[in-house]
Amino acid sequence: xxxxxxxxxxxSEVLTVEGTHREAAEAALTPRPFACVGLRAGRVAYVGPxxxxxxxAIGPATEVVDAEGGFVGPGFVDPHTHLxxxxxxxxxxxxxxxxxxxxxxxxxxxxxxxxxxxxxAASEETLIQLALPRIERLLSFGVTTAEVKxxxxxxxxxxxxxxxVVRRLGTHTPMELVPTLLCAHAVPEEYxxxxxxxxxxxxxxxxxxxxREGLARFCDVFTEDSAFTVDESRRLLLAGRALGLVPRLHAxxxxxxxxxxLAAELGAASADHLEQITDEGIRALAAANVTAxxxxxxTLFLRMRPxxxxxxxxxxxxxxxxxxxxxxxxxxxxxxxxxxxxxxxxNGLSAAEAYWAATRGxxxxxxxxxxxxxxxxxxxxxxxxxxxxxxxxxxxxxxxHARVVVKSGxxxxxARMSSCQ
Length: 421
Prior knowledge:
This protein is of the alpha/beta class. 35% of the residues lie in helices and 20% in strands. The protein folds into 2 domains: 6-74 and 374-414, Urease, subunit C, domain 1 (Roll); 77-365, TIM Barrel. The protein has helices at residues 25-28, 90-97, 102-107, 112-121, 124-140, 156-169, 195-213, 230-242, 259-266, 279-288, 296-301, 310-315, 336-345, 351-358, 360-365, 392-395, and strands spanning 6-9, 13-15, 31-33, 36-40, 43-48, 63-66, 72-74, 76-78, 143-149, 176-184, 218-222, 246-251, 270-273, 291-294, 320-322, 382-385, 402-407, 410-414. The strands form 4 sheets. Strands 8-9-10-11-12-13-14-15 form an 8-stranded parallel β-sheet. Helix 8 links the parallel strand 11 and strand 12. The chain is globular and about 70 Å long.
C-alpha cells in the first residue's frame, strides 16, 4: 500500500454513512467500531482496523490524528445558506421580539430590501471579507461543504457580483462552495408595482448571463405570498432549467400555497423550509423523490410555529436534509450543532436521522455523490468529535463537539477543547 498522507486512529467508531434514506437511519450510518481512517491524495484510502493496515501505510510523512476515543464521521454538508451579504438587521430582530411580524417589517421597507441596499453598495472585496468569518465559523462546526445563494442583488449587475464573490471565496477558504442563483428572492424596490417587468428581467437577462459565465449550479425561487406566485416560480424555474440550472424552491414556509407540489412537478433537487406543507404536498414530494431540506434555526429565529414536520417527511419515504440557512434576517447563526438539536427536538427526527440529514442526505440534495460519506474513494472530508457517539451531538444542545476538521485530506481546523462531554 502506498503511504497514507493522514491517519485518524483511536476512535470509538467511524460512521461511513454508506446506507440509504430508505432504511433505518441507525443502519444507514454504517458504524465501524474502533476503526481508523486513512487518507491519500485528498481521498479516503482506507477504513477498517488499524491492525489490518500494511506496514508501509504509515511513514515519516504521514500525519497522525489521535481521536482520543471520539467518533469520526464525514464532513457536514450545509445545503442552504445565504453567506454572502452586507449589513445587519439587529433592529428588525428587536422589532420582531416586540411583536412585529416578518411580513410587516418587509412591507415597511425592511427585510430583504434592507439587505439588498447594503449588498448593492458593497464591493466584491468587501463582500468577501464579510463572508470569510461566517465560513470560518461554519467550518469550525465541521461543515466542509456549503451551498451559497445569491438573492441580495436583484439586478443583473449585482446578482452576477454576488455569484462571482462565491466563486472567488472558493480560493480563499478550504470549504467547498456550491453556488445557487436566487434572483427571484423578492421584487426589488425599483420594480415596485412592476413585478412582471422584474420577472422578465430575470428570465431574459439574469438567467442567461449567469449561465454564460457558469456561475451557478442551481436556480432557486422564494415561492411565497410576499414574493413569487406558483405560476411565476414555474416560469422562472423552467427558464433556468432550459439553461442547465437545476430547480430548487423555498417552499411552504409562511403559507401553504402549493409550492411543494410545484417542486414535485418540476423534479426539483429540493423543497426547502416546509413549515406549512400539507399532506398533499408531502405525497407529491415523495412520489417525485424530491429532497426535503429543513432549516429549523430559521423557524426558531422567526419565532414561528409549527416547525416543519420532519417525522412525517421521513415516514413518507423522503430524503431529508438539514441546513443552517445562515442569513441576516431569518437565521443569523452559523451554529450547525443547534440545527441538529432542533431537528430532533422540534422537527421530530431521531439523532441518527438528523446526522444522516446533515451528511449524506444533504450531499444528495446537492447532487454530490462522493460527499457526506466515508467510503474508499470518497472525498477526504471528515470530522473528529470530542464525544464517543453521534447521539451526544443533539443532546448536548448547541455545543460545538467538532475537535478536528479535515477537508480534502488536510486538517483545516483544530479546536482548543479536546472533549465536549
